[in-house]
């Protein structure tokens, strides 16, 4: 069995970096799937890209459910790992795999048979309707493989093994580079399937990653060994998984819905403002990748130290992680601030109004990137001690109680117009960071008991 790094002793900074950078790289590589699909589908025309774009919000909401439950697996396994209870690490992992597998089968069937009404619901026009339905139906069967890899990734993170999932993601992304054009356009005996071909290529790569992940878990060579004999449903344990996982699922899905609602505000100001917002939103999504990477690393590190009963070290982990996020992402924000015009011009060359409005959006939003990092990292700390409901409530507060109402009020009821939407971003980042920091410093989390079942 591979020698494991003890994350409950030694340098906290080294442990954070050790966990965070492979997670960040894996997240970056995961986004490459979408970019590769978009690149090749763009060769079929705008309708092909549009048909996939229509599916994405619904696919993201479905994946949020799986992501929340697998995060719960991370928390439970991390705490058992910190308590040095290998038997419960293996049992919890076996139960998590069983639950996620059953849920993925259910969602695959629901997704396949509801594809047509769902595409009508999101407003698919006649020119893209059939392609969007085909893409969604094929992608639905991929839920089984995708969720199995998610659970492998999450369980590995729980015990601090973050490199193997990154290597698997890298291999599948490289394979997807070849399979996408092969199944979209066809070659030799393989017939091109158009938009559905992109989904077929993704399913093959996802299937290979799922098989690799499950093989590693059953073999037990990387710190976790699952067994079929431990997959008999334990309803008391499953209840705990859902108690931790559902709030996290709602947290992730509320973020997706929040960004969608903000787009609805922007669309009333014309295509130039929509374009400026679109580029700014892409910049924000790039910044969120390292923020979420550090948050996931914090969840694993906090979970293990909290499970080991090391409360003082747990607090030091959260404090240091928040400081790194604040300083690191504020520095990144300042770089974006000073090069805002050049960044927008790279995406939308030659359109002076979009460059001006987009640069203003970045300059208003970018200095608060560090505050966004603090909120995400402290949410990761709350998740690590099992307080996933707190993370969910802070995210809802940020997006639905501050950002959206403030954006509407400033844009509709003041002379700021669309600039009011821009100002809602740093305001919500500041208030959410203050609330998360104040609640963490209150020490309420210290009274919580580690998972022991």
Task: Describe this protein's structure.
- The chain is mostly helical.
- It folds into two domains: about 20-235, no CATH class; about 245-445, no CATH class.
- The protein has helices at about 10-40, 45-80, 85-115, 115-120, 130-160, 165-185, 195-220, 235-265, 270-305, 310-340, 340-345, 350-365, 370-385, 390-415, 420-440, and strands at about 185, 190.
- It has a two-stranded antiparallel ribbon.
- Strand 1 and strand 2 (about 190) form a beta hairpin.
- The longest helix has about 35 residues, at about 45-80.
- The model has no long low-confidence stretch (mean pLDDT about 90).
Outline the fold blueprint.
Layout: H1 12-41, H2 46-82, H3 86-113, H4 115-121, H5 129-159, H6 163-185, E1 186-187, E2 190-191, H7 195-219, H8 235-266, H9 271-307, H10 311-338, H11 340-347, H12 352-365, H13 369-384, H14 388-413, H15 419-441
Antiparallel strand pairs: 1-2
Helix pairs in contact: 1-6, 1-9, 2-3, 2-5, 2-8, 2-9, 3-5, 4-5, 5-7, 6-7, 8-14, 9-10, 9-12, 9-13, 10-12, 10-13, 11-12, 12-15, 13-14, 13-15, 14-15
């Amino acid at each position: 069995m591979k020698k494991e790094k003890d994350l409950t002793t030694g340098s906290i900074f080294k442990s954070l970096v050790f966990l965070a950078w492979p997670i960040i790289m894996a997240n970056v590589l995961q986004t490459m799937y979408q970019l590769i699909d978009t690149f090749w589908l763009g060769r079929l025309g705008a309708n092909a890209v549009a048909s996939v774009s229509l599916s994405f919000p619904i696919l993201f909401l479905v994946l949020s459910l799986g992501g929340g439950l697998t995060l719960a697996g991370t928390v439970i396994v991390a705490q058992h790992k910190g308590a040095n209870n290998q038997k419960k690490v293996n049992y919890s992992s076996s139960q998590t795999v069983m639950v996620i597998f059953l849920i993925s089968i259910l969602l695959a069937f629901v997704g396949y048979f509801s594809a047509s009404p769902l595409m009508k619901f999101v407003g698919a026009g006649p020119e893209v309707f059939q392609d969007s339905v085909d893409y969604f139906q094929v992608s639905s069967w991929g839920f089984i493989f995708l969720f199995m890899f998610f659970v492998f990734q999450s369980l590995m993170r729980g015990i601090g093994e973050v490199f193997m999932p990154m290597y698997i993601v890298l291999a599948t992304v490289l394979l997807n580079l070849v399979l996408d054009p092969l199944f979209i356009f066809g070659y030799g005996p393989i017939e091109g399937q158009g938009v559905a071909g992109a989904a077929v290529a993704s399913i093959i790569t996802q299937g290979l990653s799922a098989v690799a992940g499950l093989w590693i878990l059953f073999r037990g060579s990387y710190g976790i060994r699952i067994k079929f004999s431990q997959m008999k449903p334990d309803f008391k344990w499953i209840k705990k998984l859902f108690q931790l996982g559902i709030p996290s699922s709602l947290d992730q899905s509320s973020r997706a819905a929040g960004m969608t609602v903000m787009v609805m505000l922007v669309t009333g100001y014309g295509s130039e403002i929509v374009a400026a917002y679109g580029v700014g939103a892409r910049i924000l999504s790039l910044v969120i990748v390292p923020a979420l990477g550090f948050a996931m690393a914090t969840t694993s590190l906090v979970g293990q130290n909290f499970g080991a009963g090391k409360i003082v070290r747990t607090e030091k982990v959260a404090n240091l992680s928040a400081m790194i996020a604040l300083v690191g992402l504020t520095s990144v924000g300042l770089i974006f601030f000073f090069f805002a015009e050049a960044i927008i011009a790279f995406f939308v060359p030659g359109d002076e109004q979009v460059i001006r409005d987009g640069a203003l959006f970045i300059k208003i939003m970018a200095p608060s990137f560090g505050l966004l990092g603090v909120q995400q990292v402290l949410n990761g700390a709350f998740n690590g001690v099992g307080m996933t409901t707190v993370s969910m409530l802070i995210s809802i507060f940020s997006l639905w109680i501050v950002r959206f109402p403030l954006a509407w009020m400033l844009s509709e009821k003041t002379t700021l117009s669309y600039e009011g939407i821009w100002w809602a971003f740093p305001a919500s980042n500041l208030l959410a960071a203050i609330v998360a920091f104040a609640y963490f410093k209150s020490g309420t989390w210290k009274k919580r008991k580690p998972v022991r079942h």
